[in-house]
Amino acid sequence: MALSRVPGDEDLFVGGIFTLRRKTALENTGITHIVSVLKYDFKDFEDWEKYEHLSIEVDDVDDENLLADFERTGKFIEGALKSGGGVLVHCAMGKSRSVTVVIAYLLRQNPQHTVASALSLIRESRPIAEPNDGFMAQLELYKEMGCPRDIDGQPTYQRWLYQREVSLALAAGMAPDRVRFEDEEVQDAQGGGGKELELRCRKCRRTLATTPYLITHLPNATAPTQTSMLSHPTTRPNLPPPPTHTACTHHFLHPLSWMRPALEQGILNGRLECPNPKCEAQIGRYAWQGMRCSCGVWVCPAFSLQKGRIDEITKRGSSSNVRAPGKDALGAANVRALDEATAEGLGIRLPPGMRGKENL
C-alpha cells in the first residue's frame, strides 16, 4: 500500500516515504508536487528536481503542532491541483501525519466535511489511515474555527497555544512564565441576546466577572474521583454561565487582569482578593495545578470565586434578579447600591434625585 489515491475528482495521493523510490508509479499517476510531512534529508532521491516540493518538519507525536501548517499545506495542494498537477502527501508510513494534512485540505475545501467523514473517505483507499490523538484534536479545532486562512490571527488558536505553554510549565512543576488575561485579549465574535450573569464582590459591590469569562462545568452524579477532571477549554471562552447547582460552591473563571498582582508572582497557588483597594476582601483562590470543586469536578488550571463571598446578578429580560444576602447583613450604603442594581437589572430607570436615597 505504497500509494493511495484519495477518492474524488482530484489527483491527490497519500503514501509513505518509500513511495518516493517508485519512480514509475509516480510518473504513471502524474505526480508533479510532493508534500513531505516528516524530518528527513531528501538529497539521496533521484530526479528530485522534477517535483515541486513542500517540506513540513514535524514528528508523529501528540503534542506536535501541525495545526500551524494547515493553511500552508492546504494552499500548496490547492494551487497544484488547480494547475492540473498531481499531489502526493507522504510521511514515514502514510498513516498519521500525511493523513492529517490531507484531512485538513478536505476540510478547507469542502465545508460539508467533518473530521470523521474526511477520515472515512481516505480510509476507503487507505485503511491504515489513523492520525494520532493530538492531530485529531487539532483537526477538530481547525474545523471549529471554520478553517481560517489566517490561523495565527484567530483568538481561539492563540488560546490553544497558551494552554500548551501552561501544560508544559505545569509538567515541570512551575507556574507559566506569562499569564494570558482574557479581558485584555481579542475575543471571538459572538451573538448577543439571552441572559448575562455578573459577579460582584459581596462586600463592596465591585464587578469581578461577567458571562464571557465564566467556565462551565457539570457536577458529577457520583462521588468525587481522581478521574473527574476538566482541563478547562481556553479555546472556548464565551460559554453561558454555569447553571445553579447547590453542590457547587465556586464559580470558575478565565484569568482576568484584576488578578495580575496575584498571578504574576509566579506561585503555583494562592488567594484571590477583591481588586478594590478599599476592600481587598478574600473572594477566592487560584491553583495552576487545578482544584476540585465541591461538586466533584476537577478544574485545571483553576481560578475560582467562592459563592459565599460574591453576589450573582442576572441581567436582561423580565426575569432578571439579584441573588444577595438579606439587607441586615449589607449595611445602609450597600443596600442602596443593591437596590439601584436591582432596579437597573429589571429595566427600571430611577427618577432624578432617587439615586442615593435610603429606599426606592
Automatic annotation (TrEMBL):
Q: What keywords are assigned to this protein?
A: Hydrolase, Protein phosphatase
Q: Which organism is it from?
A: Venustampulla echinocandica
Q: Which PANTHER family match?
A: DUAL SPECIFICITY PROTEIN PHOSPHATASE 12, DUAL SPECIFICITY PROTEIN PHOSPHATASE 12 FAMILY MEMBER
GO MF annotation terms:
protein tyrosine phosphatase activity; protein tyrosine/serine/threonine phosphatase activity
Q: Which residues does the entry assign to the active site, renumbered to this chain? A: 91
Enzyme class, UniProt record, top EC level = hydrolase
The record ties this protein, via SMART domains, to: DSPc
EC number annotated for this UniProt entry: 3.1.3.48
Name this protein carries in UniProt:
protein-tyrosine-phosphatase
Name the family the entry cites. Answer: Belongs to the protein-tyrosine phosphatase family. Non-receptor class dual specificity subfamily.
Where does the Tyrosine specific protein phosphatases domain start and stop, copy by copy?
Answer: 68-127
Q: Which PROSITE patterns does the UniProt entry name for this protein? A: TYR_PHOSPHATASE_2 (PS50056), TYR_PHOSPHATASE_DUAL (PS50054)
For this record, the Gene Ontology CC terms, alphabetical, are:
nucleus
Domain (Tyrosine-protein phosphatase): residue spans on this chain: 4-148
